[in-house]
Write a structure and sequence with these properties.
With about 375 residues, this protein is α/β, with parallel strands linked by helices. The protein has 2 domains: about 1-45 and about 150-210 and about 315-380, 3-Layer(bba) Sandwich (FAD/NAD(P)-binding domain); about 85-145 and about 210-310, D-Amino Acid Oxidase, subunit A, domain 2 (D-Amino Acid Oxidase, Chain A, domain 2), CATH 3.30.9.10. It contains 9 helices and 16 strands. Strand 8 and strand 9 form a beta hairpin. The chain starts with a strand and ends with a helix.
Amino acid sequence: MRTCDVAVIGLGLMGSAALYALARRGVDVVGFDQLPVGAARGSSHGSCRVYRRFNFESPAYTALSDQAFAAWRALEADSGCTVLLPSQVLEAGPAGCAMVRESRAAALAAGVAVGGPRTGAAANAAFPAFRLPEDWDVVVQDSGGVLLAEAAMRAFREGAGARIVAEAAQLRATADGIRITTATEDVLAGQAIVAAGPWIGDFLPALTPHLAVTRQTVGWFKPARPEHVALGEFPVFLLDGPHGFIYGFPDFEGRGVKAARHDHGPAVGPDDWSPPATDAELAPVSETLAAFIPGAGGPIVERDVCLYTNTLPADLRIDGGEEFIIDRLPADPRIIVASPCSGHGAKFASAIGEILASLALDPAFRPDPAFRLDRFSSFSGE
């Protein structure tokens, strides 16, 4: 039987970042994932994610964003690969929009006075692709970017060297350690980090009652005015409008403007990746682009399906749900939980990898209370 100090199950952005961080610290670590980089499944698949320094979800995320930014740049220096493309981030919605208000407040809490367009009229003048209602509230962050998710995963995995078993794994806690078995491997680890995205309930069933997996559809749109939606000319955008919460990217790949609805779709199982995204599912996105960003609007040229895995609201330290779980399992602290992190977690992956490494290596290290499992009564012992 092979042995190691730490096993990492699931090598999406969170798991591969943890594997990389542990390898860089000289730890005997082995990672497990049957999906190669580029596979059309898994929470981290696809080319890009949004990086925002200031987050309307919580001003407490700013420090985590800054840690992640430094770690993304360190990964670029170490790997020689680009993983973060600078881009402005525009957030907009009707007058009084909570998203805009909270993003601006997060910036001010960090001592940053956000300039740039503050109304729809000003945004339309600054970015010709837009046609926002003139009285909409707008905030534009200069310190945002396009995170190249697939490139980042590849850099993390390659930086970890020959420490990856490309097979499906099973986990079993024993008195001697955490036993990880695959079709060809039998590994006994001192600890295990489980970052299995929508499949995490298969490994840790006690988490399942606190999670919701939803179907999210994504489209790429052939822009009506390609010269107005290029990287550097057109920002990453988040609109809170009549068709829901829509986000999207500049056409940085030459394949169109990627855009999607962030609002949660229907509940599904972890293996429900089909059928392909339909025109009806993408209609709110198409209608939003046509109405508010006509320069980016056009026919759908590609489509994809993602799965969000999010927490339900906690019942002890009350939250609204959709918060991360980054903690040791109370029943067996040798097992570290690193999921779910869907929807707004990708940007933080480089920092979360370092946090997971610290959880594995330093018994005194404690995660942020907001991320702990004891916010749920079923894990608190109460």
